[in-house]
């Protein structure tokens, strides 16, 4: 039996506006980078939204949020991670005044959560930079985006200061190195984007994140502000010291982002990397102090898989994964999309982060993308997703093990707690949820919701505070 989780542990689920809200052009919302990437974050970019883009409708949470939040409450959620679509508040991103209809929508969503005793955990920018900021300014390569972001976060912090306590500044901020358009709104094609401009964009986002943290604490000192990164434990392929160094360097490219957020300055290894790659980060007056004085209250992360690295990639198969690639680990099984399944990697990630930073950690994405089949059981439509239950049980057992080690874990929000459109592939068939949504890859379906087998399993996990998990 797994030992009890902390009494105040925040159990819940996670979603993102661009993958499930729909209503892409309703109530004054502007276009985002997601509206012109119908085939996922790495696919072709269109001039205008096209009918084959499932994200334009998503799962219609915009009109069905009461029904969905009631289902989350039935599972017993203590917290619900969602995001605000920046372009609902500032349709182009650079306006001086916000869109009231957009603000009013999130008032209703947060009120509905609070009515059910669910704490909102809100991501301010989740892969949905307003498209105008991409086309007019080349996204985060331009320092002007800091000002636009500051204006946006000031509006939402003031608006929801009595409704939302937990905030994340950017989703998977380290992904900008691998998905500059989706993550950073950078319109320059990747093959033309210089390392200088890419890392300058990184700097602008890090400064904006620190500025948001400062603004938040000034508006409401009780706010808890976190950064959010992709956690990707990296194993050396062999004991060859060169492979061990390759794994270390891969992990450092991710640690750079959390190091700045938590420690308030660029690490020394980054300075060497910049020097060797001809990168000179331009600091504006006050940037250094802003980063140092406005570190985050907690570190949050997504965890789906680990990877391996080697000095010579040509000898090994390349693995697939959550934006950040690596080599295939011969000791692990994989999901239907090739993401390697490694519960022990979550245990390692939690310990590594806590050993490094000694601040609270929050697992805000974890789950299994799989093809689910609706079946009828006792006259009800459902999904027998025992594979998802097994995956999540094994990962949560490792969370319990890390807590036993003394790691301070605030909570766990399962990714895609209700089926939504995949970020990487823009498919509906890659499902993560406890709730099945009747929508298909061709856009057909009723959008009706059905509880999967995992729905009642997770409800029991929450009700017992983890004691029902099987070690």
TrEMBL record:
SUPFAM superfamilies: (Trans)glycosidases (SSF51445). The keyword Hydrolase applies. The active site is at 365 (nucleophile). Pfam families: Glyco_hydro_1. Signal peptide: none annotated. PANTHER family: 6-PHOSPHO-BETA-GLUCOSIDASE ASCB-RELATED, GLYCOSYL HYDROLASE. NCBIfam families: PRK09589.1, PRK09593.1, PRK09852.1. This is 6-phospho-beta-glucosidase. It comes from Candidatus Enterococcus willemsii.
